[in-house]
Amino acid sequence: MSTAVSKFPYLRQDFAASLVVFLVALPLCVGVAVASGVPAELGLVTGIVGGIVTGLMPGSSLQVSGPAAGLTVLVFAAVDTYGLPALGVIVLATGLLQLAMGALRLGRWFRAISLSVVEGMLAGIGLVLIAGQLYAAAGLEAPASGVDKLLGLPGAAVDVVGSTEALASLAVGAGTVLVMVLWRRMPGPAGAVPGALAAVLLATAITLAFGVPVATVEVQGLFDAIQPPGADAFGRLASIGLLGTIVAFTLIASAESLFSAAAVDRLHDGPRTQYNKELMAQGAGNTVCGVLGALPMTAVIVRSSANVQAGARTKASRVLHGVWLLLFAALLPSALALIPLPALAGILVHAGWKLIPFRGLVGLWRGHRGEALILVVTAVSIVVVNMFEGVLIGLALSIVKTAWEASQSKLEVIDKGAGPIQVYLSGNATFLRLPKILDTLEALPQDRPLVLDLSGVHHLDHACHTALTNWAERHSTPGTEPVRVTQGTTPAPQEEDAPLRTG
């Protein structure tokens, strides 16, 4: 025993933490799988791989990986469009891309992605997830697109009011959300039980005791649910749409995992995350999940924070949580058949709500309205269009904002009434500021001598250089001294540009 203690000095803390993480992960793994339109067991498979495979690899010692609510909408759309066999190919390709990016040391570059884009992405996912799971909580079939889900809610409410079974199902889902919200205030040992697990257990007990007519999880068995992708599924790689889905999986799963790692690092004083190695660990896990035909994985902040708060000290806790998931899936799979589907929908409604950064958005609007706009536009684009294009719109808007801010320039006109008019241009003169610059210059009188001082310009791009040259050539009227340009120490323009004409 003393030898084991010396080899694993934190075994007691990690063992206790692993049980907590297992209890948090179990209902989420099942709920994410059901919401994604795949067998419940595949969610457990991804949780097992996230614990045992990814958990053993270097990168982030206390971060826990598994199926995530943030990918539910994208997975459901992929399965609906390409079929369940193609999911394994998508996840496998995602894993291989992550491994390649980690090997090329691109992991740290994901930290350069605008936080507003990531939060907007999660907010958009949260909105679509909540809308879709409201239908599931009532036992109704949800529309396909995000917009239709939201617009169809009033009609769904009318249908629910007219159906006793739908009302009962919705009551179970609403009760699940209420228990999760209030459970954290429970005193004593009961409060130590994860809220999601407590809510599912209570919902299951009530539906069984009172015979509430609700749908329950369909059970296939662990080995029956695992279906590695066949040759036909790999043939779908010729589809442009499927390749776009792989890129979306890769970007979103990687960004979510690495942002989660940064958040988890702020929760503990242990070793910091090695981002390239963590990206490779996620890639290895997704590669195995793809081979098994399971759900994609990301690092999950809910499980990771539970792991830290439960006192975990090493990666042993996350590996053990994967072992407990494996034992449950192998020994007690029939227990899944007792879980009411509206209870799982309630869990995901709660998870979707937490994906929307309400407080953060208020703070952004007060201090950085441009970033708040990017967040909102990204979220709305995901709801209106789709996940991949919504993220691209957010990234494009973020780049435009950055370029706009980087092109700050100042134009000052000094006219003393006699002698030449002095015009001072400073900062970064780029095409984004060109309309305002030209409006000011073209409004100057043409019958007066004019000096344009560019010594304060740090950068003069091709568009601005050409426009200023043309303006200087045509500005003066006959008999008036040509525009005189002083460049001082301004960096020389590109080679193909002729220097601005001086008087």
Helix content range: 55-70%
Average of pLDDT: 85
Q: How can the largest sheet be summarized?
A: 4 strands, mixed
**Unreliable stretches covering 5 or more consecutive residues:** 489-499
Strand content: 5-15%
Radius of gyration: 29 Å
Which class of secondary structure composition applies to the elements?
Answer: alpha/beta
* Number of DSSP strand runs: 6
Widest beta sheet: strand line-up = 3-4-5-6
Treating each run of at least 4 consecutive H or I residues as one helix, how many helices? 22
Helix-strand string: HHHEHHHHHHHHHHHEHHHHHHEEHEHE
Distance between the termini: 91 Å
Overall geometric form: elongated
Protein name: SulP family inorganic anion transporter
InterPro entries: SLC26A/SulP_dom, SLC26A/SulP_fam, STAS_dom_sf
Subcellular location: Membrane
Pfam family, one: Sulfate_transp
Summarize this structure as a short list of keywords or feature phrases:
single chain, 22 helices, 7% strand, two-stranded antiparallel sheet, 503 residues, four-stranded mixed β-sheet, alpha/beta
Task: Please write out the topology.
Elements: H1 2-7, H2 11-35, H3 40-56, E1 65-66, H4 72-82, H5 84-103, H6 115-137, H7 146-151, H8 153-161, H9 164-183, H10 195-210, H11 222-225, H12 231-235, H13 240-265, H14 275-292, E2 298-299, H15 301-309, H16 316-331, H17 341-355, H18 358-367, H19 369-384, H20 387-406, E3 409-414, E4 421-429, H21 434-442, E5 450-460, H22 462-475, E6 484-486
Parallel strand pairs: 4-5, 5-6
Antiparallel strand pairs: 1-2, 3-4
Main location: membrane
Keywords: Membrane, Transmembrane, Transmembrane helix
Organism: Streptomyces virens
